[in-house]
Structure formats: C-alpha cells, structure tokens
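Quick note —
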Amino acid sequence: MLGTLVNTAAILLGGAIGLMLKKGLPQRLGDTMMKGLGLCTLYIGISGLFGGCDTLILILSMVFGSLIGEGIDLEGKLSRLGQLAETRFRSGDGKTTVAEGFVNGSLLFCVGAMAIVGAMQSGLAGDHTMLFNKSMLDFVAAILFASAMGAGVLLSSLCVLLYQGSITLLAQWVAPFLSERTIGEMTCVGSLILAGLAFNIMGITKLRIMNYVPAIFLPILFCLFL
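Predicted structure written out below.
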C-alpha cells in the first residue's frame, strides 16, 4: 500500500497548495485557467483513446455502463454528498462545487493505465516505482485543479485510496482478469469519459459524467467473451 499512500498524500498536499493559490487568483485568471485545464484534460483523453483497439467493446461498455450509472444515479448521489460537504468546504467563486471538483479530480487521477498497472505491481511485486512517478504527476495536477475548482479536488484523494488500494490488496485475485488487452480497453473507455469531462469543464456540455463511470470496468467482462 506504500505507493497508494504516497499517491494519496501527494494529491492532498498538491490540493492544499492549490487552495492557497486560489485565494489570490483574480476571477478572470481563474476562468482562463479553468478553460486551460479543460483543454489539458481533452488532450489526456484523446491520447488515451488509442490504448484500445476494439470499437465493439468500447460501444458496449459505454451503453451498458451508462444504463448502470443512470439506474443507480451515481451523479445524483455524488451531488447529495457534495451538498453535505459544501457546508464545510466552499469553492468561494460560485462557479464550481465540491461535487464537481471531486468528480473531475477522481476521474483524472484514477483513469489510465498507470493507476491499474502501478497498483498491481505494488501488490504483486512490492514495486512502487510507477505509483511514485504517478504521484509526482498527480501532485502537479492537484495544484492546478484545486486552484481552479476548490476543495473538492482534495476529496478525490479518497477515491484514489479506495480504487488503487483495492487493486493493490486484491492484486493476486484480479491479475488474471486484467490482461494487457483488458487494461488497454479500460483505458480507452476511461479516456473517452475524460474527453466528455473536458467539454464539461470548458462549459460546452453538461454531461452527467459520473453516470458513465461504470463503463470503465465493463471491459473486464467483455474481454472474456469477445
């Protein structure tokens, strides 16, 4: 768990620095940074799309994943959780909420091959190198995101702790299901969701992004049969 704990701490520290920087940011600069983060997220999403090569798995995962997400209303539950946290942590600019920062940060920090492969290496071989490298990247990203979106980004560290920690602790059992192909397809689906998130950040769309998240895990099932 060392790699995941370091990654979680890096996000918390970066987020805290970002919050301190946020207090001195003029609104115009904050808006510009927000759009810039949206463009960076779009780039990350587009880059990761090439991790998969089976369009059918991508389509099936998005269709059934969105059905699952809408059925249990992940977005609504997260919004209610964010409203509770909002009473303690406020974004301060009236443009972003705790829930938005949490969703955006969680997706950015958890989607991608580094989170999965790094957690597996940590659990199977005790090799934390990849997660340490990821921690450095997430530290910088947390500073930027927290300075633009507020305290919700810090809460996303809990998602990283649970997500990567679970893979690390269950590495011996999940490894047979996470082949190179499966990880590639999961990365592809997650990257498409990140692209949608980027459009939300830039104010182009208002997608219920959290309700697409179950799609990230469905390639594990589809790769067994397709």
